[in-house]
Every structure is written in C-alpha cells, then in structure tokens.
Amino acid sequence: QSLIKGVVTSGADGETLPGVNVLIKGTSTGTVTSIDGSFALQAAPEDILDVSFVGFKSQQIKVGAQTNIKVVLKNDVTALKEVVVIGYGTAKKSDLTGAVTAINASDFNQGAIASPQELLNGKVSGVRITTDGGAPGAGASIRIRGGSSLSASNSPLIIVDGLPLDSKGVSGMPNGLSSINPNDIETFTVLKDASATAIYGSRASNGVIIITTKKGGNDFQLSYTGNVSVATPASRITNLNSFEYENLINERFGADSAPGRLMGYNNALYDTDWQDMIFRNAISTEHNISVGGKVMKVLPYRASVGYNDNQGILKGSGMQRTTASLNLSPKFFDDHLSVNVNSKFMHMKNEFADQSAIGSAVAFDPTKPVFMDNQKYGGYYTWLDQSGSKIMQAPANPLAILNQQTIGSNVNRFIGNIQLDYKFHAIPNLKANLNLGLDQSVGNGEANTHAGSGINNEIYDRQGKFYNYRQDKKNELLDFYLQYNKDLPALKSRFDVMTGYSWQHFWYSESNHTSFGDGNENGKTDIEVRSENYLVSFFGRANYSFMERLNLTATLRYDGSSRFSENNRWGVFPSFAGAYNFKKEAFLKNSEVVSTLKLRVGWGLTGQQDVGNDYPSQGIYKFSNEPASFVYYRQDGSMVHVPTVRPEAYDETLKWESTATTNIGIDFGFKDDRINGSLELYERKTNDLLNTIPVPAGSNFRNHVLTNVGSLSNKGIELTLNGKVVQTSAFNWNLAFNASRNWSKITKLTAVDNPDYRGVLTGSIGGGTGNNVQIHAVNHSAFSYFLYQQVYDHEGKPVEGQYVDRNGDGIVNDDDRYIMDKNAIPDWTLGLSSNMTYKNWDMSMSFRANIGVYNYNASASGSGTFNEIITGGDYINNVHSDVLNTHFSKYNQLSDYYVQRADFLRLDNIMLGYNFKNITKSHMSARVYASVNNLFVLTPYKGMDPEVFNGIDSDFYPRPRTFLMGVNLTF
Amino acid sequence: CINDLNVTPIDPNKHTAEKVYKSEEDLMSGLGKLYNGLSHTGQYGPAGDQDLDDVDEGTSNYWRTYWNIQELSTDEAINGWNDNGLDELNYGLVNASNLITRAMYYRLVYEVVLTNEFIRKAEEVRKPSWKNVPQMIAEARFLRALSYYNCLELFGNGVPFVTEADPIGSFLPKPAGKQFGHELFDYIEKELRAISGLDDSDAQLADARQGYIGRADKGAALALLAKLYLNHKSFFSEDGQVENADYYQKGAQVIDLLTTAGYGVVAKADLPANAKFSAYQSLFLADNQNQQKEIMFQLSYDGRYMQSWGGATFLTCGAILNNMNAAYFGVNEGWNGTRGLWNLYHNFHQKTDLRAQADSIFYTQGRQIDGPIDLKDANTGFGVGKFRNVNIDGTLATNDGKNVMVDVNIPVFRYADVILMAAEFDLRLGKSVSANHLALINELQKRAGNREISSSSAIDLDWILQERGRELYWEGCRRTDLIRFNKYTSGTAPYVWAYKGGQVNGRALPMQARWLPIPASDISANPNIIQNKGY
C-alpha cells in the first residue's frame, strides 16, 4: 500500500468538488475530498477507488501505478431530472404534491417532427393530441383530461420560458406552437391537476404545458443535426375506379341512360385516378446548427439556427420555416443576480393547397381526362353547360383547384423575455424575480383565384378574385414575485413561500381586402378589426416540508380579467395538496423491493375566461360592411344607402367558469426504481360553465348568448409505467407505457330543467344547411352522436330510408332521433414507447392507441349514394365505394349506420440509429439514423384515417407515411 | 395597472352603447338595421357575421324562412333540398325542434328586441334639431307591429312579449297571454292605429305614397291593419271559426282609406315603351322600385349594397331549375330548389293567363303534368320564374349578371292584395262585392289577360281564395289564406295536395298544424312560456 493523492473536479465547469466520497471498493475504508477537492488515502495498486457525489455519475478507477489521480465527475442526467419546472419556479421531483409529468429531450418522439406538440404525443398519460391532418405545419388540438369547458377554450395554457402564449395563435400559421423549433426544446412539463395548475388561476382549467428551451452549458459545444425525408400518401378515400364506375353505370342505369351518355370524353373512356393526380411523394429537408458554451467563462450562451423545408403530399402545399434563438444566462454579484435572456425568432412561409381538391378528386368522373381541347378554363377538363360555362353544381377539376389558386402566407414572430432573479445580499434566503416578456407577430397572407380559372363561375366572369390579409399581434407580460425559503433543522422542517403579481396584455389588429380582376367595385371589401384584453393577477404559494416525508402545498391566485364587468371581474382560485413519502418510514427504508412509495392528495379550484370575444359583458354596437348596408329610394327613384348598426348580445353578469379538481396519486418504484410509475385518480367538476346556449327569446340581442349556465364532470384514471427490461453493459431496453381513461358527462345545460329539451346540436356536416349529427345533452358526454336508428334487413344490409320508430307513435320523425352511447371522444388513450441500445446501436418505437371511440363517416354519407351519380344535371359524379355496401339512392346522412368504430393502434414512429463515438479521438461524436413515421395503423374503421378530432371525418388532408434519414454531429 | 381592466372597444367599427348615436345619420343606421332585419342577415353581408346562432345564415333570413313556412307547407310549392327541417315543412308537420320554425321564431322576436332598443335609444339621444326622429320611431313601431303580427299568425298569442320598457339581460320575458287570447292582437291594433294616424299619436308615419320607397308609410301600416282584422278569427279559438263582425267593419273602413289613397294597379300603359315584360311581371323585376303605384311596402335588395343568401336571391336563384337558363334570369347560377306543385298549375283555368305565362313564368317543358312526384327528384314539379333579376327594359341589374346577388325588391304588401281583401270584407260582412271593388278586380283580370267579370254574383269566398292563389301565388301569404278559409287542417272536406301530411297523395293535417310549436329551446330557457296546444 502507498499513499495515493488526487483531486476531483466537475466535468461541467472544471471547478474542484469538495465533499466527494472516495472509497476503496469492497471495503469501508475511504475519505472525503477537502475544500479544494483534494484527497489522500492509502491504497494498493489492485484496489479500485469508488468516487461518488450527489448529482454526478459515480466513477470507478483502478489505482494501478498511479499516485496522483485526477478524477473528472460528469453530471448525472438522472439527477438533473429530479428538478421540475413548475409555475413561477422549480421544485424537486421528490417534493411534488400534484400531478406533474416532465418529459425531456431523451424521451421525445423521433423522426419527422415539424411542430413541438408532436414531440409529446402519446408520451404523457391524460394528454391527447390530435393533429388536424397531414398538411405541413397543420394545427393540433391538445386535450388534457378531457376538457372542462363547452363553449370556452378547452386548450391547455402553454408557457414558453415563463411567457404564457395567447391561445388563439397567429393568422397564416395554423399551428401556433410551430413557431418554436422542436430542436430547441429541452423539456415539457405537463401540469395536470389543480394543485399544480391553480397558480395560473383563470387559465388553468384545462391544464398547463410549460416548455423550456435549451440553455448554454459550461463546455463549448457545436452541433449540427440534419435530415431528409420522403412523405408518401399513406391512405386514401375509397371511391370507384374508372372500370368499377363504368360497370356500375352500365348495370344500374344502362349505357344509353343519361349517366351512360355522359361518361367519357370524345368517345373514349379515360382511366383517371384523380387522387393520384393531386397527391405526390413529398421531399423535405431540415438543418439545425447550435452553438453553446461560455464566453470568457462568465457568459453562458446558446444560439441556434434552424431551417425546415417541408413539402406536403397534396400538390402545392408546403412550409418553409427559419428559426433562430439566442439564450444568455449570466450571473452577477457572486451569483446573487441571475439573468436569463431568451429570444426566439421565426420566419415562416406557407403554401396552403385548397383542401377542397380532395373532395373534388373523390367526386370527379374517373372516365374523364385531366385536360380537354377547350382552352377556356386553362385546358383543364371542366363540366360545361350548353353555353360553354362550367356547370355550377358540378365539382371543379381537382388539379385546377390546386394549380389555379395561390394560397399562402408569410409569418414573422418574435418571442422573448428577460428574467432577473436576485438573491438578496442581506437575506440570501429571499429572492426576487422579475420577468418581462414580449410575443409579437405579423402574419400576411393571400388567397387568390387566378383569372381564367373555372373553379367558380362568378370568379371567372370577374377575371379572378384576390384576397389578402394581415394580422399584427402583441402579447406583453410583466411578472414579479418574491420567494423566501428557510430550513428549520431543529424542527426538521423546511418552508418555501412565494408571492407575486402578474400583468398581461393581449392585443391584435387585423385587416383584409377582397377585390376582383375586372376592377368593379361591387364585392370589393376592406375590413379592419382590432381588439385587446388584459389579465391582472396576484398569486402566492407556500410549501412546507417535514422530515423529508411530508410535503404540503397551498396556492392562491386572485385573477382579474377585462372581459368581465367590474363587479364580476375578480376570481379567487385556491388549492391545497399534501404528499407523504412512505419510503422514509422504517418499514420500507431498507426494503430492497420497494424503492419509491409516495401518496399525493390534492384539491383545487381553477377558472376559465378564454371565450374568444374580448367584450362579452358590455353593450357594444357594430357597424356593417358595405354589402350589409340598407338601401332605400327617394320619390324620384334615386338610391340612398346607409351602413347599418347592430347592438351585440352581452351578459353583464358574466363571470368565471370554475372547475374544482380532486386528485389522488401514487408514485411507486420497485427494485431501485427499475420498474416505476404512478397512478392517478381524478374528478373534475365545472360549474357556471361559460356556455353559449339558448337564452329566453326577447331577453337579449341574440338567440344564443354566452352566459354562465350548466355544469360538467370529468372523472378519470391514469397509469404510467416505466421499466428497464434489460440492463447490461452492452444491451439496454426500456419500456414506457401509459394509459388513461376519462369519463365525461354534462350534468346541467339550461337554467330550467325541461325533459323535452334535447340539447345543443353540434357536429355540422355538409349536404344541406343545418345538418348536425352530434349533440351536447345532459347526462351524456359532449359531442354525443344524435341520429336515427337504421333498420337492417335479414342479410344485415341497411334498408334505405327505414328508421326505427323509437317512440312508437307510428310515424318516424325528428322525435325518433336518439342520443347514442357511442362517442367521438375515446374512452381509453394508450401510449407505449420502447428504447433499445446495443453497443453503438439504438432503436426506438412509439405506439399510440385509442379505444372506445367512434367516427361519423361524413365522406361516405355525403358521396356514397347512387343519386350522386345522376345529379339531375348534365354531369355525373363519382361516388364513395360505400354505396356498394348500402345501395342507398339518396342521402341518408342522419342514419346511425355512418357511426363507425374508430379504435386504432398506430406505430407513430420507428427509428434505428448508430453512434460513432470519439471518431477522431477528439470530442466529436456523430450519429446517423433512419426512421419511419406513421408506418401503420391497425383499425376496424372503414374511412381514411380513424384519428379525427371530435369524430366527424370529412375528406381531410391525409396523414402521410414519412421515411427519414438523419445525422447528428457534435463537436 | 388594475385600471387596465376597464376596457372599451378599440375597433374602428365598434362603439359602446353610450357613444354610438352621435347624429341623426347614426340613428338612420340603427333604423336601417331594423329594415335589414326583414330582408338581410348579419353585418358582413351576405354571410360571415350572422345575427342568430344555430342556423345557417342564409337559411335564417327572415323572408326566406317566412316564405318557406307560408309556401312549402301549402299547395303552391315544394323544395327537395337536404336542408334540415325542410321536409317537415313540405309535409306541413313540424315538431318543437324543427330548425326552420325555430329560426323564424327567434328571428321575429329578435326583430322586436332590436326595435325596442332603437326606440329606447332614439328617445334617449334625440336632440330637438333632429326633426326626423318621431317618424323614424313610428317606422320602428311599424316593423315591431309587423313582427308581432307574424308571431301571431304563425305561433299565436303565447309568444314572449317585450317592449322598450323591458331590460336587456338575464330576465324571463312573459308571454303576451294564453294561446288563444287577445293581448297581442290588441297591442298590434293599437300600435298600427297610432302610427297611421287613426288614433292620436305624436309619432306618425309619412302619409301614404309620400315617404321614401323601401320604408314604411301609412299605406303599409293600414294594409297590415286590414290583414290583422281580416284574419282575426284564425287567432281567437282552437278551430279558428269564431268571428266578430266588428273587426270586419273596422277592416272595411281601413280598406276605404286605402282605395282612396292614390294607389292603383300597374297596367301596361304604366310601363315604359321599351318594356320587355308584362305589367304583372314588372312587379317582380330588378327595378320594381319604380312600381310604387301598386307596391305598398317592399323589402329592398341591391346586388352591391344589400347582399343576402336569403330573400330575393333565394326567391330567384332557388327557383331556377336545371333546364332553366340562369343567364336569362340575370344571375350566373340556379339552385335547383323550389318548384311549383301541379295544384298551382291547375288553379289557372285559362292557360292564357299572363300571370302563368308559359316559358316565361311557368316552365313545364319536359315535365309530366300530374306525373308521379318525388320530393328529392328535381325533375318533379315545375319551374316558377316569377322573380327575375333583370330590369323592365331587359338590361341586366347592377350585378351585371356576374354574380348571384339579386336586385329584386320583394313586395310585401301590394294593392292587388288590398283589392282582393276589399272584396273579401264585403263577402264576410254578408254583402256582395261592391261595384267599386268589382271594378278594381276587373283591373286585375284585365292585366292578367282574362275576361272581365260581369257580375258580383260570380264572386264568392271560394273564388276569392282561388283568385288569391292566382294573383298572389309565391308571395308569402298562402298558408295564412288557407287557414282563414279553413282549408288547411281537417275541416269538413279536407283539401289535400301532394306531400300534405307526409304522404305522396296528401292527407288531412291535424288541428294543431294551424299554429307552429314554440321551439323547445325557449320552453327550456324560459319557464314563463307555455307550449302551444297539441305539441
């Protein structure tokens, strides 16, 4: 044995580490590093030193011939994970009392990801994310635990680096969140229950998602990520091909019938697959460069630039996004003042293809060529009447719809904030935090139909239609809070109290202009709209922790909104929660099996005021546009026109909608947390629903008015399970699974109970005006299907026009519609992720499933009838192939036949990667990977895609299957 | 910073109620909205910022809804569109959830609420120098009386009753009275008498034919008052057969005022030399504001300034069927919707009647007379091209034929109607049609190209109903007429037509079909409102 000396430093900043344990493995002999990080002990060459320190990865070092050992400890990522971002601060995960889930970069979805919410989809129990379709930059709906409102917003509050975003998004950018480059995101924290969200008071009823972006570290790091992908149409609407169509017409109507004669062009039958004509394989590329580190060892920074060129599978659709971000996080005055500057800039150029081309492609006669000899409408085949004009009711040429219109936008957005966090010199336990934020955007867009286009007769006659718009938006924030924490070792207690003030202003201005190519003033419009609202809040939180076992949290928020009149403006939103850590108890302390066991119980009240309209509680008069003027004549016949003015409906007594949430959660872990997870039970009751409902006729300036009537309940259970299935030095396999079940019910809808009142119809479909297939009704879930019960023959075929006389009064009429127990909102949502690493290889998969969900197949109900072929005019249509099942002649859109099971299992993503480590003996590392998004969907659903938000499936932009190759380089 | 929460609109087109009316012109915009409430919808035009919820904006249009109720459920028209609630109207059978009757109910009460607000505000802000305010208030009262009259004839006396004395906000309006009560009738009568100068009032309309065209004058108010008196028996009892001769007497007095007010039947001699259409057709053309001799009250339409998917656009485009040339009607598209029933065709005994002129008004080519009828088949029924977006000289209206927004002003009250009412009052008072009234009827016959009627004895009540069906068909009064003549519901000898009662060959309608149900949504919202009998 000889004396071995050494020094331990931190890999992150190179500083020496005092208090590090240095132990000879397998013995109890050891020492602790001194204030300068040095240590000394007696050891033999064959001994192994075990160097460990909280927050760092342990290291084992064979002594060998060394007498002076330098140990560099690396940060332990799992330890960093322990700190979770919560509202106005951070908390140690072990201290949490509410239902909070944090997801960081290593858990994100992979592959072709264009917008941030896709990173999260399927990863968190109780969070359902549904994209609006497969268009580049398409919007997405996020629902946390169902949704607690009917007419008010059901979207969660989204906070980026401390700045709450406006829920309404930006004109010209369908997905508000896509202004943030997914590659810049470090963590998502999802706050689900009221004890976690109530600190955000009036905006917290539908949960809160906190996004933090990446910051600079100590070491210089330059990284590049890039990928190229090919998207292919993965699904299509089933209509008849040319051959099937011709057969059907000949068999059903005869070759000499009107439809028979209208087939083909110039005595030839063409075989045009219109869906093939409008879709394509789309190629996209993405490049991101980021650089981070510390300038002069004092100024941590991170800067990034990203470029994404995303082509859509519908011809003419695409998105090009450039993002830049800069983060600076210096500290001053011996780290008493921390400054955090975040700025993100985005420029986006969108090309929106007119999605009506999809419906036209389904309906257009497949025996027609794409082009015709007649050049009137640019040569595109068009159904013409005797005068040579397009037949008004006939579908427009699908390709002309895409090629003869220019629809696009240009959006610029800046999101930035500066956060000052000051630890008082005199009282280091007292901190003050000031946060100033700005979210400003300008969206410009146009939707032009070219002169000569045959899409619409009026536009053709008027030599083209030109529409453009501009929106300016500004969201300003000021937050200030004081935080005080105190350890009381004598009482084995710890306190942490915080109180603050918040002010936020949302403002926008919009204008749009319509004109026609003929220069005629008729129909020319110039519209201008401006609006704003303010939120002012006071809030506080107190945490108490006893013996590291018991944690108690209480929060209170006092919110004022300019949307409400002075007497109803303010709302109080309290919450209380407690957690108990049983692992610290004697009976579990030494258990080898149970590594974590914590019980959490919480209750809280949250509110909602996001109703869209900024002035719902005061009497406002609104002047008309020119085409809504009033005209009268003088006796001499000359015309006088004046604008009209309309008083708008309002409810002076309008106030907060409030949701009371109770949550019980258990966190558990076994075998050193090799298997861990949590189970949550919740109940949410919303009262005073902000609800647009029929008000007594004669009492207001509208038949439906936004008012506080009704209540709603959501109950649910959520399970999260994580398991390290295999853990060896070469092969690792982790699985993460989550499952959520939500029961939702409207419990009150009107001021007066009336059994004859069915509810508020919703779920509008085409085919005529006023056709709705869903209803919000008491004792049922929102968006319940409300239809006639189809009669089937002995072979199980639906009998056309025959519905069950449910009330038995001898006639089948509107009174026989019924509320189905089949629902557009899934009972169960499930997610499963698998991550495997083998040496330098890694492979991951993400599955998602919905169970207990039904769609209304509007595509089949709207175009699956024989009458769609004959039309009554001098043109014919192709039909949805469902007509071969139903043999329906006419519309039967209100038949429950069209409500079809839409459960699914989707492989969202599968990825295989290879890591090159230390290729050049330098720090450089590289990774190459390949992935497929949306590889398959297993579903009994008969339509194009089972995953449709709120259940009504009508010709939407199909989600593509995307193959991607990518590379990550780090220097 | 808390004061930031006190906001007022920053939008250039929005004003708080305190600041909106700064001049008499501003008040005219408020009155304009009341007129638009009958002809148009919303502040965007023709769609985009609608007045009512729960119903498509074009479908919610007052005249489109009123017309559908008055015509589709009768022997004059059908429409096979897949619009919610339309089939039930075709059958004459609606329930308390029917979308179109619901739209009508809310539209009518909405119009009342708007007029109340206007009257309240006008009284509040008026300055002595604003000389036109009393007449504007009288016009608002006329529009309110018209809406209440429509409420009465369609839904009965039990509709919510609110005036300028009622507040806006969370309160439960009370009905005028019980279903067959007199309250609403009395109120309408009192209001109309006041604003037309029969009783003392400081707010009176312009004298008949002396005011602006497209705004109400005393002639309009008196025509409505005559209708109220004539139809009174339909309102006061379940079977609609309890008559009160006093009301016929009063009605006849009103008719006397109208027949001496300077109105006349537009005849060929009144048309310009280059007229391309008959005198009857001139009443339904794009420049029919020039036919004020006969049109006593119109809903204005203009292809540029007053655009709507309801009203005149609906009447014109909705009736253009596949084989009718849209360009000939001054628009660029037909909607293949409303069609004439064969009962309407057969009501014209002489095929030479100019009111049913072949291939100009009635399009029957390629359509089998009395053939099988299929509601959803656009080839069933025949085309009625009564409304045409072309000027009397054949030139195109302001829309140049390049869009569908129609210029035709809709005649709500026509002198021809007054003439037929005059004869009916005579008969209902137990007399024969007076010589004076017979002469007026013969002016209508002459214009129609028919032989004159030589003797009053040829005219009985049945003839009046048939003649109203010839002169006033598709003008939105058929249902009320059939009910008054006890031909609508069961009666003694049921009168049936295709699809009446939901059967292809027609069947009798039950008694309650005389009135429409109050929408279930209002019964739920307001416990003071009682559902009508039979629903």
Characterise this structure.
The complex is a heterodimer of chains A (971) and B (535). Chain A contains 13 helices and 54 strands. Chain B has 535 residues and is mainly alpha-helical. Among the domains of chain B are: 23-193 and 494-535, Serine Threonine Protein Phosphatase 5, Tetratricopeptide repeat (Alpha Horseshoe), CATH 1.25.40.390; 301-408, no CATH class. Chain B has helices spanning 24-39, 62-72, 86-91, 99-125, 133-154, 183-195, 218-230, 245-259, 311-318, 342-347, 415-428, 435-447, 461-471, 478-484, 520-525, and strands at 14-16, 77-79, 295-299, 338-340, 362-363, 383-384, 410-414. In chain B, the strands form 3 sheets. A two-stranded antiparallel ribbon of chain B has the order 2-4. In chain B, α4 (99-125) runs antiparallel to α5 and α6 (183-195) packs antiparallel against α7. Classes of the chains: A mainly beta (971), B mainly alpha (535).
**Beta-strand percentage range of chain A:** over 45%
> Most extensive chain contact?
A-B, 103 and 123 residues
Q: What is the count of helical runs of chain B?
A: 15
CATH architecture of the largest domain in chain A: Beta Barrel
Residue stretches of chain A low in confidence (pLDDT < 50, at least 5 long) are none
Q: What is the radius of gyration of chain A computed over CA atoms, rounded to a whole number of angstroms?
A: 32 Å
Mean of residue pLDDT values of chain A = 91
Task: Write out the strand line-up for the largest beta sheet of chain B, numbering strands in chain order.
Answer: 2-4
CATH architecture of the domain at 23-193 and 494-535 in chain B: Alpha Horseshoe
What is the subunit organization of this protein? heterodimer
Query: What percentage of residues of chain A falls in helices of 4 or more residues?
Result: under 10%
| Uncertain ranges of chain B | none
The helix content of chain B, as a percent range, equals: 25-40%
The amount of beta strand of chain B, in percent, is under 5%
